[in-house]
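Ticket reopened. Same input as before:
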Amino acid sequence: MSAIGAKPAAGSAMDMTATIIGIIILLVIIAATYFLVGPGMAFMALIGVIAGGILIGFGVHFVPVGGAPAAMGQAPGIATGVAMLAAGAGLAGLFGGAWAAELGIVVATVTGAVGGGLMMAITCMFVNFIYVFGMGIPSASGKVARDPITGDTQAEFKSQGTEGHGLPFVSYVGGVIGGLFGGAGGTLIYLMLLEVYTEELPGMMNALPGQILPIAVTLAGIFAIGMFLVNAVLAAYNITGTIEGPHDPKFKRFPRAIVASAIASAVCGMVAIMIVAL
Amino acid sequence: MTVKVEKIEGGIPHNTIMVAGLIASVVLVYLTYANVLTGTQYFAFFGGLATVAALVWGSHTIKHLCSYGIGTGVPSAGMMAFGSGVIAMLFATKYGIAAPIVAVILAAVVGAILGYVANNVLNMKIPVMIVSLVEMAVIGALVLMGYAAMMSGSFELSALTTGSVSILGLSLPSYQASFLGGALIATAFMLGGIAIQHPFNACLGPSWTQDRMLYLAAECGFLSMIAAAIMSMPLISMGAALVSLFVAVIGWYYTYAKYIELSKRDAFSWLDSKPIPEVEGQ
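Engineering reply: fixed in the latest deploy. New output:
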């Protein structure tokens, strides 16, 4: 982020006290929602929103994020930040899933996952095109000696003084898996909120369900985007910027992100549901 | 211990900008309520001015947070602000006249929880993390409320969801011709999200100067306001939309000229780069 490029101080250890306090906050929010809206559809929607948030937070860890060093060919990954990358993949999935919303939750969520995965697959392919044919650098990982999937050795292709470069096969696969998770999570949040809003808004605003549909779609969509970005940025804070993919040692930090995503989604989801339920 | 990679020396202290930005944007959002009192829509442009005030404050908060090297790039902070702000803002619109106050309070609560999660659960250990995320959520909520007030003339949920279309001279109520039903909020989200992160992203580095960045923030705010004024044309009366556009263009021209002037000033001087100052805790 700056020319000096200081590394953040976040370690890989898990702060147990903070985690327990976080889980207590999560349970308090779930319990409060249960008392306010009862065990009906709105409560199930909150659970769905939390599940979607966890999928997003977990999925971001698979995406090979390179940041500025990758743009200079000094680190592997896609040369941009997590927020942009996750937003691109997740929103592509969300739009795909939103088209299929009326076909039921399973079909829509799978469509969203395919949309996100497809977006990441295309992105990764063209990133490698540019790296290999534009910048003239081979793909090599700096974190592992052999590619965990293909078994290809990496060290011979790695330039001195770099952490690797390009997009090795395992990172490509990781990117697609991340897109699948992100797209599915975003679509799940959208579907859950859409269901609540189409049910509750007509009564609240004294209008026919058909008239209210554009508002329900907008509300669910903008909340899904908002929660998607919050979860993606929290996951980005967890991996402190750059990650190579599922083989990176930083990947092991994901339990923290799952707790964080669950709390953040619960807070945001509760407020989003209370708009119509209170 | 966190290494602080950019220094803040001289200039206006962050707390002054924060208080001024908060008061200015809340008061300016409230001034759009004059629409309801006078029965016109000509005061909608105050909503746009509220967004400019909040964006100036926001760019300095991003500077404050990102000077610790969060490692995820400056745009992520802007996205976080609006992702958490939009939720608080839409919930607050239910409360009618109290909406801006409710938005500030609720956004602060959401931001505090997110800040705790980021700082302690995710182990970021950045001294200003919680405060900054509280500020960011409040800014996101106020900017979106400002755009809502500017585009639809009011910040209440009923006005944001209901518009009117005229067919053969008859005015019919329509839910699609509204700030929410027409999904204008998605555009407002990105207009604000880009305007808030761009100033620091563009001005960071050893020759960073506070006044230049703040003028760029105001310039970005007015530029977004021009787009918002054009988008308000179908929702409010043409006269009111033109007033907004006029104010936005004047403001944009002034801040743009000022920013270019300051850029020329700073282009001449090369600051002697000093060793990285290390700040322990706070």
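Chain B touches chain A through 57 residues (CB under 8 Å). Residues 2-279 of chain B form one domain. Please confirm and we'll close it.
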